[in-house]
């Protein structure tokens, strides 16, 4: 059992951080009659397409609101601005989402929520890095099989040495 736990810890320490359906949480704040959570994906954010997802809840009951009008606006370096209506997310129907092309630098996301007469706005800030080669982000997964093979070979070698020592 101890060996299994040691292996599980080693395996988990080699994997990249997991994120939920909406990506990385950037803000979760009360806004008017709502609670708004703003997520971004992928992680880390690099120049190119960025998915901005929003979860809207009723502030009093904390129930998810599925019939709101949500608009996402991004303001980037040099005052560059983007805006798009958010639609229900394809994978997780609790989220509203929009995908936008961003450049490297500091960005501010402003989310406008309207439901009936109630309206509110929430904000989040995040940094976008220069684009990087994607294969390098897979290194933890690619290094795991050689590590497992090396552990197996070391185990077999130790057992063989122990067997030779016991034989007359």
List keywords for this structure.
4-stranded antiparallel beta sheet; 5-stranded antiparallel beta sheet; 24% helix; 9 strands; alpha+beta; 168 residues; 2 helices; 2 domains
Q: Strand fraction band?
A: 35-45%
Spatial order of the strands in the main sheet?
A: 1-2-3-7-6
Structural class: alpha+beta
| First-last Cα distance | 33 Å
Q: Tell me the number of structural domains.
A: 2
- Coarse shape: elongated
Runs in which pLDDT lies below 50 for 5 or more consecutive residues are 8-20
Secondary-structure element pattern, one letter each: HEEEEEEEEEH
Proportion of helical residues: 10-25%
SS elements, strand count: 9
Question: What number is the mean pLDDT?
Answer: 84
> Do you know the CATH architecture of the largest domain?
Sandwich
The CATH topology annotation of the largest domain reads as: Immunoglobulin-like
CATH secondary-structure class of the largest domain: Mainly Beta
Radius of gyration: 24 Å
Structure explained in plain terms:
The protein has 168 residues and is of the alpha+beta class. It has 2 domains: 2-12 and 136-166; 20-132, Immunoglobulin-like (Sandwich). 24% of the residues lie in helices and 42% in strands. A 5-stranded antiparallel β-sheet has the order 1-2-3-7-6, with no helix packed on it. Strands 5-4-8-9 form a 4-stranded antiparallel β-sheet, with no helix packed on it. The longest helix has 28 residues, at 139-166. The protein is elongated. The chain starts with a helix and ends with a helix.
């Amino acid at each position: 059992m101890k060996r299994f736990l040691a292996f599980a810890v080693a395996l988990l320490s080699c994997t990249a951080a997991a994120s939920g359906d909406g990506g990385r949480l950037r803000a979760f704040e009360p806004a008017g009659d709502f609670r708004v959570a703003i997520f971004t994906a992928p992680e880390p954010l690099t120049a190119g397409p960025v998915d901005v997802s929003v979860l809207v809840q009723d502030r009093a009951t904390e129930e998810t609101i599925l019939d709101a009008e949500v608009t996402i606006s991004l303001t980037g370096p040099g005052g560059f601005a983007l805006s798009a209506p958010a639609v229900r997310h394809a994978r997780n129907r609790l989220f509203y989402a929009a995908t936008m092309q961003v450049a490297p630098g500091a960005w501010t996301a402003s989310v406008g929520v309207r439901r009936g007469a109630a309206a509110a706005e929430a904000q989040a800030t995040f940094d976008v890095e220069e684009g990087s080669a994607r294969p390098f982000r897979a290194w933890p997964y690619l290094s795991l099989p050689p590590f497992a093979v090396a552990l197996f070979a070391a185990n077999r070698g130790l057992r063989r040495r122990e067997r030779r020592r016991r034989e007359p």
